[in-house]
Specification:
Elements lengths: L3 H13 L3 H4 L3 E9 L9 E4 H12 L4 E14 L2 E12 L11 E13 L2 E11 L6
Parallel strand pairs: 1-6
Antiparallel strand pairs: 1-2, 3-4, 4-5, 5-6
């Protein structure tokens, strides 16, 4: 049986590295990513695997972020559900709000994953961004 926590951690590390080729096989074809409303995506939304991989590849071009980090906090697993609390930091190539190029965007995130048959089938993100203000 696949270790759901190890699978989710591997996926987060692939996303962190902008590595779509490493992330793709960890996701089921019917994967759904739900992003709750936040400062970046005010209306929230739902994306399938193809859209997620396209976005990850675009991110890998490093036109918006030169790098990113997920500082993982608590990870709670119950069967095939894994909940991860994390701090996300993104190093900006271009200004965002009052954050300058070279600055760091920060979000506090709760990610809820569903795993089935050794693949992630659902991810729901609650992203709370810090103000886009220079410190």
């Amino acid at each position: 049986m696949i270790d759901a926590v190890a699978l989710v951690q591997a996926y987060i590390r692939a996303v962190e590295a902008f590595d779509a080729e490493a992330a793709a096989p960890l996701l089921a074809e019917e994967m759904q990513f739900e992003e709750l409303p936040n400062r970046i995506r005010p209306k929230g939304g739902v994306d399938g695997k193809a859209a997620m991989m396209a976005a990850l590849r675009r991110s890998g071009e490093r036109k918006l972020l030169s790098g990113q980090r997920y500082v993982l906090g608590d990870i709670i697993a119950s069967g095939e559900r894994v909940v991860v609390e994390a701090r996300w930091e993104g190093d900006l190539v271009v200004p965002v709000g009052a954050l300058p190029a070279g600055g760091t965007m920060v979000a506090h995130i709760c990610m809820v994953f569903e795993v089935q048959q050794g693949r992630i089938v659902q991810q729901r993100n609650y992203d709370c961004y810090e103000p886009f203000e220079a410190v």
